[in-house]
Amino acid sequence: MRGGPGDAERRQRWGRLFEELDSNKDGRVDIRELRQGLARLGGGDPDRGAQQGIPPEGDSDPDGGLDLEEFILYLQEREQRLLLLFHSLDRNQDGQIDVSEIQQSFRALGISISLEQAEKILHSMDRDGTMTIDWQEWRDHFLLHSLENVEDVLYFWKHSTVLDIGECLTVPDEFSEQEKLTGMWWKQLVAGAVAGAVSRTGTAPLDRLKVFMQVHASKTNRLNILGGLWSMIQEGGVRSLWRGNGINVLKIAPESAIKFMAYEQIKRAIRGQQETLHVQERFVAGSLAGATAQTIIYPMEVLKTRLTLRRTGQYKGLLDCAWQILEREGPRAFYRGYLPNVLGIIPYAGIDLAVYETLKNQWLQQYSHDSADPGILVLLACGTISSTCGQIASYPLALVRTRMQAQASIEGAPQLSMLGLLRHILSQEGVRGLYRGIAPNFMKVIPAVSISYVVYENMKQALGVTSR
Question: How far does the chain reach from its first CA to its final CA, in angstroms?
């Protein structure tokens, strides 16, 4: 193909572009020249376009510039990628992208944009006034400019990877093809896991208090936050506030890895090779992936509850706890409370995703004039609100799960099924009984989100995750 007329025409066009950008005529295009060229050509954000325009891997010499051959090689690879993206957006395969196809593409990401907004996007690329974008217009617009909108929305609006509030029931984030090809996806997952570990350790006393109140608080003892903290410190000292934190941190890595792999497989089964899922499909895929991960690591959940509630000297450690449960209660004990746990994924994931997508849409429609980047405060606020709403909806099932996990270790406690326990709580304590421990759960949300975000950003820098 290198010798064909189409290829010769392309090389001539790229050569002319290279000469136009090479303002000092030294035979190389550097970041400064590309920035000036983009500003002259009207290419959106020159700084951002320039940073993405010359990637380090496209430059064989570490001098921050490209010669003609390197420049042509880079544009060749970029054109191929742009062509694939053009075909994926051109849904009726007529060789042109119209307003309805732009709207469909955003709807596939769960983003509702108005006809006026879609026309505005189309106008920015439509040079001949036909109200459609052909391949040449698409290529010329994006060849040196960053691929905005679709990939930006995926990149900037991650929240399940970024924020950890102690629950792993959120629908996994989407990663763009570029992130998968460059290996940035696993670095982001590692950064998220480390952030979760630090966040959970920092808020462990509140998490233990939540579990303690879920199991022991009742109408008769009127156990409150200060009373619960004081009784735990009296029984085991200040260090006892971190009981159960070790395994809570330990289960992050296997759960995140299993959920991500399951999500990718389920996603492929639902949509084939299509890159993005509709919101409803993300909910189904995310819920199934969450259920898969929970099924595999659930014994660790039971161990976490038992170690969190243990008395001083009750267990020598994690393995001793597992052995005692196995010896006294049998292997079925490791799946006590499994049904309410899996059922809790549906309201949590559904409401978290629905609220987050609604807030995201509102922001994108009102404020995303130049960039899809919401900024730290908006991302944190949307993620916190959606996760909190999900927790409120699924909390009764989480409380029933915790009590079922713990009831065999409490002397005199009735061994009830999920429905039996629900009836028992409602008859003895009313609806309020299903929300015991929710106050410390809310108290830990803001510090957990803040810690996880700060650690995540620092880990991204340490691992070399490129920011846009």
Answer: 34
List the one residue out of 300, 203, 317, 318 whose CA is nearest residue 252: 300
**What are the start-end ranges of the E strands in 128-214?**
133-134
- Half-sphere exposure (CA, 13 Å, Cβ side) for 334? 16
268-302 CB burial, b ≥16 within 10 A, e <16: eeeeeeebbbebebbbbbbbbbbbbbbeebbbbbb
Residue 153 located in a structural domain = yes
Asked if residue 181 is part of any domain, the answer here is no
Q: At 20, which CATH number? A: 1.10.238.10
- 177-181, 185-189, 298-302: which has the minimum mean pLDDT? 177-181
Domain tally for the chain?
3
Residue 42 lies in a domain: no
The tens digit of pLDDT for each residue in 58-100 reads 445 545 566 777 777 777 777 777 787 788 777 778 888 888 8
- This prediction has a pTM of 0.69
DSSP label at residue 392: H
